[in-house]
Amino acid sequence: MIHDTIDLYDYFGRPRGEAARGMLTRYLHDQITESPGLQKVRPAMLVIPGGGYSMTSQREAEPIALRFFAAGYNVFVLWYSVAPLHYPVQILEGGMAMLYLRREAAALDIDAEHIAAVGFSAGGHLCGCISLRWDDPALRQAFGQECARIRPDAAVFGYPVVTCDPAKAHMGSIRNFCGDAVPFEAYSLEEHARADAAPAFIWATTDDGAVPVENSLRLYAALHAAGVSVEMHLFEKGSHGLSTCESDVFPQPVDDPHYAQAAHWIPLALGFLSARGFKMRGK
Question: Pick from 124, 109, 1: which is nearest to 56 by CA?
Fold first, then answer.
């Protein structure tokens, strides 16, 4: 495995300013060269951890990356800036991550037409921003017409922050993202579903006590109404921040069968992606 970190600000030659992060950790398969025909081009997965835009969750980073790595992906974890920094910093860092993968696809041995993103909680909101608002004014100003390449080829949402409706929103995430720079409703994702959005896989638990399940329901309904290819799985039980639903991401025991049930999101998501061409191929 090749495991290192790229500074996106250095790569793009953009001033860092107050931005503390904008780093991309890479998990790349070594090419096997000892026998002809074993070199592979792989699908890519951009992992966007949650954390309410106040931190980035470790348990939604490497544990997720290793699961997709084991499934044959080259994987990249985005460590984006958080509060007190706000819009447009996070969406610019998400855009830089996707454009880095597009530009460097050949060198990274990834398929430039099969780059997905997976986001959790507030990271699901950022995943939604690059999936639905890749032509956001900040991205267009920074990257011009190339911003069209920011949209992932598929998006996976884990218990995402979606709405700014105070009745169902995780308002801490929305406030931390928008700050005083933009109105909350401008980044309520269900209001920005569009027919050319990335195909989407959504999963959540009905009794999530932090980000109400209605966030996922609203995203699904909006994407479906827009004609987007979308699949959703709701599990009955499970606390917020489930990640892989395994013991290495929980301080408490996870032998409750509901956790094992929710863990099916990973093979279900892999199947969704495989059906859309996310597979290894010969180089």
Answer: 124
